[in-house]
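Researcher: I'd like a candidate sequence for this fold, 565 residues long. If you have to choose between options at a position, lean toward the conservative one.
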């Protein structure tokens, strides 16, 4: 049995994220089924799962960066990664609020993870989440979060000093009790006979925290579905209790949201902006629609709002700063049902992950649906699933273009298959392999034949990239110093150089020594065109019958990507 933590250190944070993801995975469908507020669109469980998935992936990335070291990451690094991952991957109203709750906790837990810090973290989290919502409503996840914080603080006041296990148990019990009361506080929940979906998701996350610090999951009673709400009993178990007057089996979609159909669009985006710009943005978006939640800080914000004029909501973000990862969902509510307005699906599409705006434009022109993987922000599986849905095709070829995205892409493909889409995952490991695969894509031939041709083209393309060493370290090419230019071929450091042109020439020579017919160069945003001229001349003079093609990649992690096929 693993040793139980005395405080929330980095390993405990990692475990918490993993257990929370498992818990939301188990309960996702049930939480979706009771989602009636603020929009009865049946996706709160899914949104919370995808938000925590992004948080967990960010924490795993921190641990992966320390794999060669003798010590685990610092607690501060783990909790900040958790908060950042949740922020960039937040989905929907409840996911956005959960991201702010985790951010509020991280601000305190970065300084310590003992019982006193956790109590303060829960309080800061609840306060931060309430401030992030333009018009807080009782009977929602905000109420459940506040109750968890109050219970943890109240336990301390009653019993003096307490350990971490006592605090997490108190917070969980307080959240459970508050969740059971939500139908009394919010009429739409009472009429549907359900508890708040976001609040139930938060209870699952807090239950994972209990399991992290005690080694045992909270006692769970019978499952609750539409028409029944949970109430806490001795020991923290949950039993199903009918809500007054609601017939057995009544579902959430039998009860429309208070106030009618509501706005037509959900608009979500990440925003790089200064604090003073965000204050003005809140005011403008609040006038445009409802369900406004703006979370984040330190220059990066996550914006969520329901509006009738989606364009105006995006324009407001442009005026405030730089919005990206913009996602607009059109929902029309009729008798509480979520209706997606879509045309007849096409037969086949390609979904491709690209490292910069330049390649996104290139792939879009070639007919692909793109997902941009910005530096330090790899897409989660939910983002890839969204792209597959946007492609709106019966058959989809998925090109992840990154070895690290293999499992994420596989999860997205599996999810899309459950929705009736035939998905083939071509395991491309670099953007230049994706370009090669897309170049031979022919939607008019058989699906299997097309996938085989694309896979063969990708496999026949060797890939390389240039990177700048951040610190002294051992590599397969020797010891590098901070600031050295590294040439990575097929994922391994093969060349250590002093400048980009010379290192790029050496990399090209090593790759072309095995032969080749076409060199692909993808230049980063700050790389001058003169580099392409130098490398084109180098290939032309040294290798007969080898062509060179150059693309602008825009804002990407590597200053130069190279492909040889």
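Model: Candidate sequence:
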């Amino acid at each position: 049995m693993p040793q139980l933590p005395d405080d929330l250190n980095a390993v405990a944070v990692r475990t918490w994220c993993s257990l929370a993801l498992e818990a939301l995975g188990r309960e996702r469908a049930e939480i979706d089924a009771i989602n009636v507020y603020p929009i009865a669109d049946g996706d709160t469980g899914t949104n919370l799962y995808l938000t925590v998935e992004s948080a967990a992936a960010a924490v795993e990335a921190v641990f992966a960066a320390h794999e060669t070291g003798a010590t685990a990451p610092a607690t501060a690094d783990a909790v900040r990664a958790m908060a950042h991952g949740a922020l960039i991957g937040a989905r929907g109203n409840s996911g956005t609020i959960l991201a702010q709750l985790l951010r509020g906790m991280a601000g305190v837990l970065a300084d310590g993870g003992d019982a006193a810090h956790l109590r303060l973290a829960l309080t800061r989290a609840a306060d931060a989440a309430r401030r992030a919502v333009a018009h807080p409503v009782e009977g929602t996840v905000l109420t459940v979060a506040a109750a968890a914080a109050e219970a943890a603080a109240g336990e301390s006041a009653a019993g003096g000093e307490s350990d971490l296990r006592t605090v997490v148990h108190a917070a969980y019990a307080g959240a459970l009790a508050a969740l059971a009361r939500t139908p009394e506080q919010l009429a739409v929940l009472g009429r549907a006979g359900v508890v708040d979906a976001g609040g139930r998701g938060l209870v699952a996350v807090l239950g994972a925290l209990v399991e992290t610090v005690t080694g045992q999951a909270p006692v769970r009673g019978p499952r609750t579905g539409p028409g029944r709400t949970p109430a806490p009993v001795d020991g923290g178990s949950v039993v199903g209790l009918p809500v007054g007057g609601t017939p057995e089996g009544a579902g959430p979609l039998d009860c429309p949201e208070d106030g009618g159909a509501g706005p037509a669009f959900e608009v979500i985006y990440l925003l790089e902006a200064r604090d003073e710009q965000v204050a003005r943005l809140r005011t403008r978006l609040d006038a445009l629609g409802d369900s406004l939640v703006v979370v984040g800080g330190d220059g990066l914000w996550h914006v969520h709002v329901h509006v009738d004029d989606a364009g105006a909501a995006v324009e407001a973000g442009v005026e405030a700063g730089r919005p990206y990862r913009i996602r607009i969902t059109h929902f029309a509510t009729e008798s509480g049902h979520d209706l997606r307005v879509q045309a007849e699906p096409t037969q086949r599409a390609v979904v491709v992950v690209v490292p910069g705006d330049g390649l996104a434009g290139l792939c879009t022109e070639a007919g692909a649906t793109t997902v941009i993987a910005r530096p330090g922000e790899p897409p989660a599986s939910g983002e890839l699933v969204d792209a597959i849905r946007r492609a709106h095709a019966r058959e989809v070829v998925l090109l992840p273009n990154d070895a690290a995205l293999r499992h994420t892409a596989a999860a997205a493909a599996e999810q899309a298959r459950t929705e009736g889409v035939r998905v083939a995952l071509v395991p491309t490991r670099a953007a230049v392999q994706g370009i090669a695969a897309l170049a031979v894509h022919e939607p008019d031939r058989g699906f299997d034949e097309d996938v085989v041709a694309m896979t063969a083209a990708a496999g026949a393309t060797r890939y390389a990239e240039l990177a700048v060493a951040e610190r002294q370290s051992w590599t397969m090419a020797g010891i590098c110093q901070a600031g050295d230019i590294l040439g990575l071929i097929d994922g391994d450091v093969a060349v250590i150089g002093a400048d980009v042109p010379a290192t790029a020439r050496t990399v090209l020579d090593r790759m072309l020594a095995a032969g080749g017919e076409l060199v692909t160069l993808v230049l980063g945003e700050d790389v001058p065109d003169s580099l392409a001229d130098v490398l084109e001349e180098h290939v032309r003079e040294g290798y007969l019958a080898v062509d060179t093609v150059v693309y602008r990649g825009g804002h990407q992690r590597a200053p130069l990507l190279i492909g040889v096929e």
